[in-house]
Design brief:
InterPro entries: ERAP1-like_C_dom, Peptidase_M1_aminopeptidases
Mean pLDDT: 85
Number of domains: 1
GO molecular function: metalloaminopeptidase activity; peptide binding; zinc ion binding
Keywords: Aminopeptidase, Hydrolase, Protease
Number of strands: 0
Order of helices and strands: HHHHHH
Protein name: Aminopeptidase N
Radius of gyration: 14 Å
GO cellular component, one term: membrane
Helix content: 55-70%
């Protein structure tokens, strides 16, 4: 076992971004608490596990910093976070902000 980063080709990075930003993840902010709880426990939300969503952000940021991925693609991916309610998925973005604040 080991820790590996995954650098998809640009088409697949964009497909992932499109999926995360699709209706399956959109408009959670208009739901009441009971609806949010139901949604967060639904299969639609869990199609990509929270740890995988976090890793996608982490990998994309790493590859963008290393100039192996366009920053615009990273921002496409990160834009889904406006609907994200799980701290685990937000953590790599917070670390990205921390890194950017130091350069």
């Amino acid at each position: 076992t080991g820790y590996y980063r995954v650098n998809y080709d640009i088409v697949n990075w964009r497909k992932i971004a499109q999926y995360l930003n699709s209706q399956k993840y959109r408009n959670i902010h208009v739901l009441n608490r009971a609806q949010i709880a139901q949604y967060l426990n639904s299969q639609k939300y869990r199609n990509i596990h929270v740890l995988n969503r976090a890793q996608i952000i982490n990998d994309a940021f790493h590859f963008a910093i290393e100039k192996e991925l366009e920053f615009s693609v990273f921002w496409e991916l990160a834009s889904y976070l406006r609907q994200e309610r799980d701290y685990i998925a937000w953590y790599p973005m917070l670390k990205a902000f921390e890194f950017l604040s130091k350069i």
